[in-house]
Amino acid sequence: MSLLNKVLRSKLVSTTADIEVQRQDPNSPLYSVKSFEELNLAEAVLKGVYGMGFNTPSKIQETALPLLLGAKPSNMIAQSQSGTGKTAAFALCLSPTLELAQQTGKVCKQMSKFLDIKIAMATRGEEHGRRREKKVEQIIIGTPGTILDWIRLKLFDPSKLGIFVLDEADVMIDTQGHRDQSIKVHRHLKKSAQFLLFSATYEDRVMKFAESIVPNPVIIRLKRSEESLSNIKQFYIRCQDRQEKFEALSNIYGTISIGQAMVFCHTKKSAQWLAMKMKEDGHAVALLTGDNSPEERMFVIDRYRSGKEKLLVTTNVCARGIDVEQVSVVINYDVPLDGRGIPDCETYLHRIGRTGRFGKKGIAINFVDSDRSFNNLKSIEKHFGRKINQIIADDPDQLE
Ligand code: ADP
């Protein structure tokens, strides 16, 4: 417990000065040489952006926006680390999950507050009575299935759309269901529509595919060594079995005094089991999986965002994109594996990227309960070339 306390205390205290230092470092994703005024934004958008408390653009905003808004609009495949402000670099999009679409919708609404622009949300659970009305909004944000339904029902005319954005683009073009639906939507658009892809990760294979479907893209790509963020410190704890993992989590719960935690499990079943055990132990935890109804999902994430629970137990459904500023600790209750049981480096990076938002400090803790999960974690460590230190009671110096 005291060791955990030490980790949490020593690694989490950050100040605004910290972020200013990152802004001056050309290697940081927050580095900028320009101001928002220099980015070709309309006056009313600038007002919206400043109203959100943004003073200067991040690297991805500074790079992408002038290219997207230039006289000759280009297609783009962009990569930028998690939490570096990709949402503010696009304005119309397909997202892989309900929560993420909702979140992007909110950002868009804030940003366009001083513009005469309306936004439609195409997600399940929205729009109760209005489902079949024609859409008059200029921007549509949603998940692929609902957008396709709207196209089939002729609720809007896709040939009128000027910009098509895939958020979390690598999953949108690589996982089968999403890929088929995204490509179907794309086929309905006019040829001249701008096509923009954003993500923090692209496996080489997926980048190749992206390049084959986006005509003449401007490509913004990170080096492997830049992908993982230095403001997120990574650790692991060795546990004997499920029970010990549970005890480790209870200990962490007891030591979190700064911010909130997100816990990722491999399956819905194990997430449900864990949340139930934690509740039985008297902890206030939130549970969010794909088994919840759309209404429940929105309710749970809103409660968590507002700080009602300190800990959210979830699955990969929340691994990407979700921006909750105060998340200070991410726990991989299970090391992420893909469908073939191979360590999933991209998902790992997205999961830990739920903390350390926009330069803040964050901690990621991995639970390792077998030689196999240890080896899986080691291969993730090797992939990114960034140390994952063991939290071990008799060697506290390791943490320094
Ligand atoms: P990403 O999509 O790259 O994961 P987000 O767009 O969710 O990241 O942004 C992460 C956080 O940083 C959000 O809370 C957002 O409000 C904040 N943010 C984005 N751009 C700026 C900026 N230029 N200045 C200050 N904060 C910003």
From TrEMBL:
<dbReference type="GO" id="GO:0003724">
    <property type="term" value="F:RNA helicase activity"/>
</dbReference>
<dbReference type="GO" id="GO:0005634">
    <property type="term" value="C:nucleus"/>
</dbReference>
<feature type="short sequence motif" description="Q motif">
    <location>
        <begin position="34"/>
        <end position="62"/>
    </location>
</feature>
<keyword id="KW-0963">Cytoplasm</keyword>
<keyword id="KW-0378">Hydrolase</keyword>
<feature type="domain" description="DEAD-box RNA helicase Q">
    <location>
        <begin position="34"/>
        <end position="62"/>
    </location>
</feature>
<protein>
    <recommendedName>
        <fullName>RNA helicase</fullName>
        <ecNumber>3.6.4.13</ecNumber>
    </recommendedName>
</protein>
<dbReference type="InterPro" id="IPR001650">
    <property type="entry name" value="Helicase_C-like"/>
</dbReference>
<dbReference type="GO" id="GO:0010494">
    <property type="term" value="C:cytoplasmic stress granule"/>
</dbReference>
<dbReference type="Pfam" id="PF00270">
    <property type="entry name" value="DEAD"/>
</dbReference>
<feature type="domain" description="Helicase C-terminal">
    <location>
        <begin position="231"/>
        <end position="400"/>
    </location>
</feature>
<keyword id="KW-0694">RNA-binding</keyword>
<keyword id="KW-0547">Nucleotide-binding</keyword>
<keyword id="KW-0539">Nucleus</keyword>
<dbReference type="InterPro" id="IPR011545">
    <property type="entry name" value="DEAD/DEAH_box_helicase_dom"/>
</dbReference>
<keyword id="KW-0347">Helicase</keyword>
<feature type="domain" description="Helicase ATP-binding">
    <location>
        <begin position="91"/>
        <end position="220"/>
    </location>
</feature>
<dbReference type="GO" id="GO:0003729">
    <property type="term" value="F:mRNA binding"/>
</dbReference>
<dbReference type="Pfam" id="PF00271">
    <property type="entry name" value="Helicase_C"/>
</dbReference>
<dbReference type="InterPro" id="IPR014001">
    <property type="entry name" value="Helicase_ATP-bd"/>
</dbReference>
<keyword id="KW-0067">ATP-binding</keyword>
<dbReference type="InterPro" id="IPR027417">
    <property type="entry name" value="P-loop_NTPase"/>
</dbReference>
<dbReference type="InterPro" id="IPR014014">
    <property type="entry name" value="RNA_helicase_DEAD_Q_motif"/>
</dbReference>
<dbReference type="GO" id="GO:0016973">
    <property type="term" value="P:poly(A)+ mRNA export from nucleus"/>
</dbReference>
<dbReference type="GO" id="GO:0016787">
    <property type="term" value="F:hydrolase activity"/>
</dbReference>
<dbReference type="GO" id="GO:0005524">
    <property type="term" value="F:ATP binding"/>
</dbReference>
